[in-house]
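Ticket 4471: requesting a sanity check on a complex prediction with phosphoenolpyruvate. Repro inputs:
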Amino acid sequence: MRKKFVAGNWKMNPNYPEALELLKYLNINVPKDHSNVDILICPPFIYLSEAKNIFTRPDIYLGAQNASAYTNGAYTGEISSTMLKSLGIDYAIIGHSERRQYFGESEEVLAKKIKLCLQENITPIFCVGETLEQRNANEQFEIVKKQISGALYDLSIEQIKKIIIAYEPVWAIGTGVNATPQQAQEMHTFIRNMIMNKYDDVVSQNMIILYGGSVKKDNAYELFSMPDIDGGLIGGASLKGEEFVSIIATAMNIVNK
Ligand code: PEP
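Returned structure tokens:
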């Protein structure tokens, strides 16, 4: 039985005082009895260490929004998975569409990042998803297949077990237009089947597959209730403490039913 998983991706937001306020809010207000829902917050790198201090609760995990494809050395501006691990960070978002689109990250680079995260025992949350143009051309399955096979298929069965996949259609990210639960479920089934065909049924059934793209408290229930949607990667709504807590409560409600 898979747990639900609710992750917040703050992206390049907010400023320092606002970040402190939000972290403190979450530390107090995230429900404590969420044993069937894992909760992850991914603030910008520079707030991770402060977040570690503010979170007095080991039940709220912290993640990075990226990790370098290099281990250490002369790579100005980069943050390595080794550095993240040394700070006690357990998760990293890898291959977010904004990284692909604005920073030119290819499947090859993403595969390296994933391997380095795994070496450090950091769980990569690997993001995949098609653009609107690709969906309109009915290419979404082909695109997601290429993204998954390109970055993950070199992994051993032991390594793939540690991966979380987030399906985030680019047209739904930050637009207010979420995929319908049926569209998301269809893609999640497709992804689960890919993992089953490449690895095995047990790995596929245990894999956490998140949906991301305009998840809010008002649509979380219908999305998270779908059998292959194990929770969400949440951008905009994770910056509003009350809304994010309400999304967590929704996930708890589904599990507890
Ligand atoms: C995201 O940043 O991964 C995301 C899904 O953003 P939003 O929830 O704002 O669409």
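Notes from triage: Residues 90 and 127 are 17 Å apart (CA to CA). Leaving this open until the requester confirms.
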